[in-house]
Design goal:
The structure holds two protein chains of two kinds. Chain A is mostly beta strands. In chain A, about 0% of the residues lie in helices and about 55% in strands. Chain A has a single domain, classed as Immunoglobulins (Immunoglobulin-like). In chain A, the strands form two sheets. In chain A, strands 2, 4, 5, 6, 9, 10 and 11 form a seven-stranded mixed β-sheet that branches. A four-stranded antiparallel β-sheet of chain A has the order 1-3-8-7, with no helix packed on it. In chain A, a hairpin with a 2-residue loop joins strand 5 and strand 6 (about 55). In chain A, about 40% of the residues are buried. Chain B is mainly β. Chain B has one domain (about 5-90): Immunoglobulin-like, CATH 2.60.40. Helices cover about 0% and strands about 55% of the residues of chain B. Chain B contains no helices and eleven strands. In chain B, strands 2, 4, 5, 9, 10 and 11 form a six-stranded mixed β-sheet that branches. In chain B, strand 4 (about 35-40) and strand 5 form a beta hairpin. Chain B starts with a strand and ends with a strand. The chains are: A mainly beta, B mainly beta. The interface of A and B includes residues 100, 102, 103 and 105 of A.
Chain lengths: ~110, ~110
């Protein structure tokens, strides 16, 4: 049983560009959440998707948007990249009911 | 009100010793308190979790102690091993779709 998978693992973008990160949840999980982890800090909640809709959102600007597909996979899009967007982006999936969240290995985004 | 405060920032323990990491929260709506272990370049891995209806939960060498009145919880790692060297994050979530609020992390180093 594959766990949470994210792609790509590493990415380098130029300031002002747009980026799309992808996540496939663990089998049987229907909820996907995205987190941003700056170097040396704890993950910060970006938003959460369930039944193809954004259900909760953290304190992130509208440049951050997402999508969930019928197979529960998800994308995170970031527009107009800033240097400060450089971070490890983590996807977590959760099953219906239990609160446990399982994380992927993350996508390391570097904005230059 | 959403903060989770974690201490210490770093910890050095001798092999075989006990590692203790503490967290305090403010939001009384939180009802699920997980601990995650993260190795460099990897996503956080769920270690152990507790709900406020119990004061202690033990899984192998890992124990969570929970004090609801003080709004504090802690992770104890018994017989610490060099392989336990990692960054540990406490987290908390409220009922609903369960976005996690993370602490700032504790970098644990277990010396052989």
């Amino acid at each position: 049983d594959a766990g949470v998978t994210q792609s790509p693992t590493h990415l380098i973008k130029t300031r002002g560009q747009q980026v799309t990160l992808r996540c496939s949840p663990k089998s049987g999980h229907d909820t996907v959440s995205w987190y941003q982890q700056a170097l040396g800090q704890g993950p910060q909640f970006i938003f959460q998707y369930y039944e193809e809709e954004e259900r909760q959102r953290g304190n992130f600007p509208d440049r951050f948007s997402g999508h969930q597909f019928p197979n529960y996979s998800s994308e995170l899009n970031v527009n107009a990249l800033l240097l400060g967007d450089s971070a490890l982006y983590l996807c977590a999936s959760s099953p219906v009911g239990p609160a446990e969240a399982f994380f992927g290995q993350g996508t390391r985004l570097t904005v230059v | 009100q959403q903060q989770v405060k974690q201490s210490p920032q770093s910890l050095i323990v001798q092999k075989g010793g006990i590692s203790i990491i503490n967290c305090a929260y403010e939001n009384t709506a939180f009802d699920y308190f997980p601990w995650y272990q993260q190795f460099p370049g990897k996503g956080p891995a769920l270690l152990i979790a507790i709900r406020p209806d119990v004061s202690e939960k033990k899984e192998g060498r890992f124990t969570i102690s929970f004090n609801k009145s003080a709004k504090q919880f802690s992770l104890h790692i018994m017989d610490s091993q060099p392989g336990d060297s990692a960054t540990y994050f406490c987290a908390a979530s409220a009922p609903g779709r369960r976005a996690l609020t993370f602490g700032s992390g504790t970098r644990l180093q277990v010396q052989p």
